[in-house]
Design a protein that fits this description.
By secondary structure, this protein is an all-alpha fold. It has helices spanning 2-18, 25-44, 49-63, 68-83. It has one domain (2-14, 25-83).
């Protein structure tokens, strides 16, 4: 089920954010906020999905070079959101 897959991907992102890495505090905060927003959307489904998708795409491009694992997880989350019609 795509929602279960999305929840697993968000957990994977949160594990990456919790592990020691070269991410600065601001970046961790941004990514944590994105994960929170996606989870809130799953509960309420009344948030601004276009804005959320735009920020997700920007984050993917931002992290591709320096943090490819995080960019990959974000890409998977984006794919799953698209499959869910979000």
């Amino acid at each position: 089920m795509p929602i279960d897959k999305l929840r697993a991907q968000l957990q994977q992102l949160r594990r990456q954010l919790a592990s020691p890495s070269r991410l600065d505090d601001e970046t961790r905060e941004i990514l944590t906020g994105m994960a929170d927003e996606i989870e809130e959307h799953l509960e309420a489904s009344e948030s601004d999905t276009a804005s959320m998708r735009d920020r997700l795409e920007q984050a993917i491009y931002r992290f591709e070079a320096d943090h490819p694992h995080i960019a990959r997880i974000l890409g998977e989350i984006g794919d799953t959101l698209a499959k869910l019609g979000i």
